[in-house]
């Protein structure tokens, strides 16, 4: 199943690259013509990166969810090399996943990818000799440089928003701060039983109106953008601890059975849930339940063997 998942993600990436090439030829041919006449500059790469990331995903899927799928496929590919036995093809697939995640510039996905790449690089360096370490570090620096170039603009915007975090204006970081502020106020007003799952949007909308967060009201999105806060608002303290306990139990099982893959995968889901209602949507809950079940099943079979 993991092989099918990894290969299908790779084929989707190839299809998106083909669609992107068609997009530039049909919609941005003036850019191609200008580049041929004036030559390639740094602005050329910036233009391609910007429009490539904005138009890469063909399907009606948020870039975070697509990035999560690619990150999961990359993780499975690293921990289970039998998925693709040909080393060259395995490296091509892995680099494709890395490049697309950087291209889509989902900030949380990039930060998780960088953390995973640091872990992988450390493990590789620890087991390698001096000459091979030079190659590993060179590849790591090259990948980090590529990621920095593709994502620097989006992260710069977040840094700039930190200075205006209390202002009532748009921006993904500011918006999440506003959602969190409203959520914590609601939790403070009903800390024991919450408001019920069906009333979360209504209560959030009331708080947005009270705090005069007009931009979020115009967007018409009233989700707290945090799975843990959302659970607390809807189910109170009991629901929150039950939901939190699910992660604790999986982490505990992975730790005692030394299942590093399950530990990292669950950790990624845990972090994403802190900035997105990830498990409240089918695109999030279905793959997570499937792969946690699959990783637990494989773990059980390994222990029996």
TrEMBL record:
It is found in: Membrane. Keywords: Ligase, Membrane, Transmembrane, Transmembrane helix. It is a multi-pass membrane protein. The chain crosses the membrane at residues 62-79, 91-122, 134-151, 232-254, 260-279. InterPro entries: O-antigen_ligase-rel_domated, WaaL-like. GO terms for molecular function: ligase activity. Residues 93-244 form the O-antigen ligase-related domain. It comes from the Bacteria. Pfam families: Wzy_C. PANTHER family: LIPOPOLYSACCHARIDE BIOSYNTHESIS PROTEIN PA4999-RELATED, TEICHURONIC ACID BIOSYNTHESIS PROTEIN TUAE. This is O-antigen ligase family protein. It comes from Flagellimonas aurea. The lineage of its organism: Bacteria, Pseudomonadati, Bacteroidota, Flavobacteriia, Flavobacteriales.
């Amino acid at each position: 199943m993991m092989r099918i998942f990894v290969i299908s993600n790779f084929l989707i990436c190839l299809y998106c690259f083909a669609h992107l090439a068609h997009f530039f030829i049909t919609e941005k041919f003036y850019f191609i013509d200008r580049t041929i006449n004036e030559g390639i500059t740094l602005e050329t790469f910036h233009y391609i990166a910007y429009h490539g990331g904005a138009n890469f995903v063909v399907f009606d899927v948020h870039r975070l969810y697509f990035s999560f799928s690619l990150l999961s496929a990359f993780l499975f590919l690293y921990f289970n090399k039998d998925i693709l036995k040909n080393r060259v093809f395995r490296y091509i697939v892995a680099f494709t996943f890395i490049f697309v995640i950087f291209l889509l510039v989902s900030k949380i996905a990039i930060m998780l990818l960088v953390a995973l790449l640091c872990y992988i690089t450390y493990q590789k360096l620890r087991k390698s000799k001096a000459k091979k370490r030079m190659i590993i570090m060179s590849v790591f620096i090259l990948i980090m440089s590529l990621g920095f170039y593709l994502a620097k603009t989006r992260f710069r915007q977040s840094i700039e928003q930190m200075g205006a975090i209390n202002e009532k204006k748009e921006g993904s970081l500011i918006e999440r701060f506003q959602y969190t502020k409203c959520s914590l106020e609601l939790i403070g007003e009903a800390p024991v039983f919450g408001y019920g799952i069906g009333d979360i949007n209504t209560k959030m909308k009331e708080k947005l109106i009270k705090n005069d967060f007009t931009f979020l009201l115009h967007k018409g999105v009233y989700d707290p953008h945090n799975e843990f806060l959302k659970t607390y608002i809807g189910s109170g303290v009991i629901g929150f601890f039950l939901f939190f306990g699910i992660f604790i139990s999986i982490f505990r099982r992975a730790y005692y059975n030394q299942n590093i893959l399950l530990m990292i995968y669950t950790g990624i889901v845990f972090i994403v849930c802190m900035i997105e209602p990830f498990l409240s949507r089918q695109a999030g809950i279905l793959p997570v339940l499937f792969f946690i079940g699959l990783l637990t099943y494989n773990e059980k079979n390994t222990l029996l063997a």
